[in-house]
Amino acid sequence: MGPIDADRLMYKNIVDSNCIEQDILPKDNINDAIEYLKNNEVPQIEGLYEALFKRETLRHCSVYVSDKNNSKIISAANVGIQHENIDPKELQQLVDFAYEYDQSNKVMVLFASYLLYERIHLHEDGNGRMGRVLFLENIYQLSDTFVPLSTALRYNKQVKQLMNEVFKSIGFGEIMKKRQIKCGDAAIYRVEIQEIDLNKFYEIINDNQRTKQQYYTLDLDDNTSKLIVKLLNMIR
């Protein structure tokens, strides 16, 4: 087998990461991000985000990751930390710590850092892509612990199911019952009721009372740790 073409592999992983999110970034953005990663031993969150997305790094609003939305419920798989509590210095310290860590369990530490990054959700968009490339898929600086998670998520349903189970166990979700719409309601009232439900759900998201400490503390129970190990064994 010939030598690995790191640039091509990095490009493929970022493309796969975008395909998961159904949002394909321009080639120039991807190439800029690759050049940035090659030239920075420890990536800076702001520098990488600006290279890849060409927009402001930190969000200034509430965000959540959609989950089930059917005739009975609206739910979020995870609600991001209140934007007032986003601390870019502390998040960069998380990246620095993960890159400097050199013990035998480094892959688990990197994966846990990725989960924290996802749960905090500091960007308005692109949190998954940033987390994966920062902690798992930076082949230039993490060659010994490189985990092609994006490719596995794109093509392997079992990996995707495992990842969903892991996120479910560590995420801060919300669920709200919808108002039941009677069969006799006119269509216009049906739309109005749906809008009322969505507005109520947004109020729940905006009223997130979880503390900064809760978001920055990640306790992996035995079951979640086993799921992560199983997932990593499938793709490494």
Question: Can you walk through the features of this model?
Answer:
This protein has 236 residues and is mainly alpha-helical. It has one domain. Helix content is 57%, strand content 7%. It has 11 helices and 3 strands. It has a 3-stranded antiparallel beta sheet with strand order 1-2-3, covered by helices on one side. A hairpin with a 3-residue loop joins strand 1 and strand 2. Helix 1 runs antiparallel to helix 6, helix 4 packs antiparallel against helix 5 and helix 5 runs antiparallel to helix 6. The longest helix is centred in the last third of the chain and has 20 residues. It starts with 5 loop residues before the first helix and ends with a helix. InterPro entries: Fido-like_dom_sf.
Distance between the termini: 17 Å
What average pLDDT do the residues reach?
92
Structural class: mainly alpha
The domain count comes to 1
Could you tell me the strand content as a percent range?
5-15%
> Residue ranges: pLDDT <50 for 5 or more in a row?
none
Q: Assign an overall shape.
A: globular
The total of helices stands at 11
Helix content: 55-70%
Query: SSE string, helix = H, strand = E?
Result: HHHEEHHHHHEHHH
Main β-sheet: number of strands, strand sense, barrel status? 3 strands, antiparallel
Spatial strand arrangement across the major sheet: 1-2-3
Number of strands: 3
- Radius of gyration, taken over Cα atoms and rounded to an integer in Å: 19 Å
Task: Give the gist of this structure.
With 236 residues, this protein is mainly alpha-helical. The chain is built from eleven helices and three strands. A three-stranded antiparallel beta sheet has the order 1-2-3, covered by helices on one side.
